[in-house]
Amino acid sequence: MADSAGIQQGSPAIGAAGLVPAAPGAGGTEGSGAAGGSARIAVKKAQLRSSPRPKKLEKLGVYSSCKAEGACKCNGWKSQNPPPTPPQTDQQSNTVNLQEPCRSCSHTLGDHVTHLENVSEEEMNRLLGIVLDVEYLYTCVHKEEDADTKQVYFSLFKLLRKSILQMGKPMLEAQESPPFEKPSIEQGVNNFVQYKFSHLPSKERQTIMELAKMFLNQINYWQLETPSQRRQRVPNDDAAGYKANYTRWLCYCNVPQFCDSLPRYETTQIFGRTLLRSVFTVMRKQLLEQARQEKDKLPPEKRTLILTHFPKFLSMLEEEVYSHSSPIWSQDFLAGAAGGQIPIHTDVKEAGDEHLPLCPYVLIVGEKRKPSEPLHHEENKRPRVVGDIPMDLINEVMATITDPAAIPETSLLSAHSARDEAARLEERRGVIEFHVIGNSLNQKPNKRILMWLVGLQNVFSHQLPRMPKEYITRLVFDPKHKTLSLIKDGRVIGGICFRMFPSQGFTEIVFCAVTSNEQVKGYGTHLMNHLKEYHIKHEILNFLTYADEYAIGYFKKQGFSKDIKVPKAKYVGYIKDYEGATLMGCELNPSIPYTEFSVIIKKQKEIIKKLIERKQAQIRKVYPGLSCFKDGVRQIPIESIPGIRETGWKPVGKGKELKDPDQLYSTLKTILQHVKSHQNAWPFMEPVKKTEAPGYYQVIRFPMDLKTMSERLKSRYYTTRKLFMADMQRIFTNCREYNPPESEYYKCANLLEKFFYTKIKEAGLIEK
């Protein structure tokens, strides 16, 4: 992206009808007519300001009240010989006569302009600018057919007319002044780029920033539909709210583009999410449609950006615009975001620029961050520890990793490519789309969504033949269920049907399938990753599902396990129990961007690989191979291998052994008390009774329990930490050997074991 102040956005699709400002009263959004109208007004103002002073006085006299003695009520001088309408181009303007009487009150022109005798040329030119704006608005009022728009034009006409009479500056009188909503659209898009793309390499992030600037530019020059048009298109919408925003937009953004005597603001800087929601759907549709129609006219360097990346950018932004829990609309977003804000905004033209014609293709951007200014990541605040790799080396390696010329292209069929890599690239190119859809009993049916739901029902029925079709249909069309649908070429090729239980803190996955001829392309993994991110936004961090024997492998790859983290009391009675299926669960980490997770891991591997290569290059000495094994030696200490220490290897610490018996006793007693009071310790408190577990002692030869360990501790049996840890580990091993993985006892053993080792590490008995 260029560093210049003006970023050229020009392309036929971006500068086509509907994407640039329309002149008030133009009756449409035709770009050429709008730009031409604005230019004509600017030319007229320039000509009038260059006229002789008497001519200026004559023009201002028309809008100035009579100052003659006797309290004349005439509010503007009217010539005895008005010019023909339209004026003849060959007719020379007559010499101005200040003694010419007014057709209305008979007082002279001089009586109407006495207050202007000592006014500076600059002030007179300002008033003349208002005069031409008044005349333009007068024309708009008579041409405009929409009642709401006509009313706004007339109000602005009276405001400017009053400003001329009082020789004041036009000030809009309203209950609220800009900005009308925080955060603004501009700030929200900034937050969106930071939220979704801050982890990308600099080159890809620059592309996203260019798309964001392009989008903001389109909003600033977008022609809103009138309230009456919107009522016809969306009958159930908040008509009063939209009308209020439409009026504000006309007064502060649209009309000031042509009547520059009014203060002008950018739409993206004074409006927020509410206005964006009301225009986004229509705007997105028109932008993409025009881009497709005029793709042959696009410059080659813009074609990929607009036809491939822009649709995907708009789809991702649409989710955040209409999501009720999106963080990008929080005023506290930047306070908790890692990294600095990416500057993406447009600047309002200054008052001194009124002679410059508005260019709908040029975007004025904010200052770029200087390369010397570091981004303040949270990680930079983390204290450095011994063994950390120097940041200079990390930055040097990162520059190599993110340099496209330094990284060879890898085939998608490579054994090292991620499962979802092909699907992710297809999504970026706009080949596939993901939409969360569902049936609704409250809103008017959407034909496209209903067609997609039917397509999902067909996919699930075909791929899950053991499920009754009536059952699939009932759940897919149930308003309580939603489905993340995978769309390719306008048709459904897969999806995940789910039901959210926010009060219980989990979601049940009901159906998951991809049509057979589109499998083994990574779509299933990418579907699940999108579903995970959708639930993180809605603050639900647990999945539950019943998987048959064919689906267990897929769910394991997606991070599901038989170790259920959700307490049984939370889901019993809420989810459907399937005979012959295995209950599996997945706990989500809100810090992980799942759709980009494989990319991040790949980059981390590349970094480690580069660091190893650099370390190897520093070790110049080559040692001969080990020959001791040929002489019959079975094993040798690791530290005796020549050159091993030069590589940075260090002996693994074995933890500290407490030599003071009383100190060891006190530490082990504290740990055992913590373990016994844990919520998952109840199955291991006492020895297993033969009546409760028949055959237990035939399977388990060396039983152990927490009561026995307490007695051993009291008798000072545990003279070393190893004895204590061995007995505790035996409890967990015995439990897993006797009980099946899906049992409650098995899960308790896993959770308690994790807790035990946490306490051991906290006590310093083993290294963290």
TrEMBL record:
<dbReference type="InterPro" id="IPR018359">
    <property type="entry name" value="Bromodomain_CS"/>
</dbReference>
<feature type="region of interest" description="Disordered">
    <location>
        <begin position="1"/>
        <end position="39"/>
    </location>
</feature>
<dbReference type="GO" id="GO:1903010">
    <property type="term" value="P:regulation of bone development"/>
</dbReference>
<keyword id="KW-0012">Acyltransferase</keyword>
<dbReference type="InterPro" id="IPR037800">
    <property type="entry name" value="GCN5"/>
</dbReference>
<feature type="active site" description="Proton donor/acceptor">
    <location>
        <position position="508"/>
    </location>
</feature>
<dbReference type="GO" id="GO:0060173">
    <property type="term" value="P:limb development"/>
</dbReference>
<keyword id="KW-0539">Nucleus</keyword>
<dbReference type="GO" id="GO:0043992">
    <property type="term" value="F:histone H3K9 acetyltransferase activity"/>
</dbReference>
<dbReference type="GO" id="GO:0040029">
    <property type="term" value="P:epigenetic regulation of gene expression"/>
</dbReference>
<dbReference type="InterPro" id="IPR009464">
    <property type="entry name" value="PCAF_N"/>
</dbReference>
<protein>
    <recommendedName>
        <fullName>Histone acetyltransferase</fullName>
        <ecNumber>2.3.1.48</ecNumber>
    </recommendedName>
</protein>
<feature type="domain" description="N-acetyltransferase">
    <location>
        <begin position="441"/>
        <end position="589"/>
    </location>
</feature>
<feature type="compositionally biased region" description="Gly residues">
    <location>
        <begin position="25"/>
        <end position="36"/>
    </location>
</feature>
<dbReference type="InterPro" id="IPR001487">
    <property type="entry name" value="Bromodomain"/>
</dbReference>
<dbReference type="Pfam" id="PF06466">
    <property type="entry name" value="PCAF_N"/>
</dbReference>
<dbReference type="InterPro" id="IPR016376">
    <property type="entry name" value="GCN5/PCAF"/>
</dbReference>
<keyword id="KW-0103">Bromodomain</keyword>
<keyword id="KW-0963">Cytoplasm</keyword>
<feature type="compositionally biased region" description="Low complexity">
    <location>
        <begin position="12"/>
        <end position="24"/>
    </location>
</feature>
<feature type="compositionally biased region" description="Polar residues">
    <location>
        <begin position="1"/>
        <end position="11"/>
    </location>
</feature>
<dbReference type="GO" id="GO:0045944">
    <property type="term" value="P:positive regulation of transcription by RNA polymerase II"/>
</dbReference>
<keyword id="KW-0805">Transcription regulation</keyword>
<keyword id="KW-0808">Transferase</keyword>
<feature type="domain" description="Bromo">
    <location>
        <begin position="676"/>
        <end position="746"/>
    </location>
</feature>
<dbReference type="InterPro" id="IPR036427">
    <property type="entry name" value="Bromodomain-like_sf"/>
</dbReference>
<dbReference type="GO" id="GO:0061035">
    <property type="term" value="P:regulation of cartilage development"/>
</dbReference>
<feature type="binding site">
    <location>
        <begin position="550"/>
        <end position="553"/>
    </location>
    <ligand>
        <name>acetyl-CoA</name>
    </ligand>
</feature>
<comment type="similarity">
    <text>Belongs to the acetyltransferase family. GCN5 subfamily.</text>
</comment>
<dbReference type="GO" id="GO:0140672">
    <property type="term" value="C:ATAC complex"/>
</dbReference>
<dbReference type="InterPro" id="IPR016181">
    <property type="entry name" value="Acyl_CoA_acyltransferase"/>
</dbReference>
<dbReference type="GO" id="GO:0060349">
    <property type="term" value="P:bone morphogenesis"/>
</dbReference>
<dbReference type="Pfam" id="PF00583">
    <property type="entry name" value="Acetyltransf_1"/>
</dbReference>
<dbReference type="Pfam" id="PF00439">
    <property type="entry name" value="Bromodomain"/>
</dbReference>
<dbReference type="GO" id="GO:0005813">
    <property type="term" value="C:centrosome"/>
</dbReference>
<dbReference type="GO" id="GO:0005634">
    <property type="term" value="C:nucleus"/>
</dbReference>
<feature type="binding site">
    <location>
        <begin position="512"/>
        <end position="514"/>
    </location>
    <ligand>
        <name>acetyl-CoA</name>
    </ligand>
</feature>
<dbReference type="InterPro" id="IPR000182">
    <property type="entry name" value="GNAT_dom"/>
</dbReference>
<keyword id="KW-0206">Cytoskeleton</keyword>
<feature type="binding site">
    <location>
        <begin position="519"/>
        <end position="525"/>
    </location>
    <ligand>
        <name>acetyl-CoA</name>
    </ligand>
</feature>
<keyword id="KW-0804">Transcription</keyword>
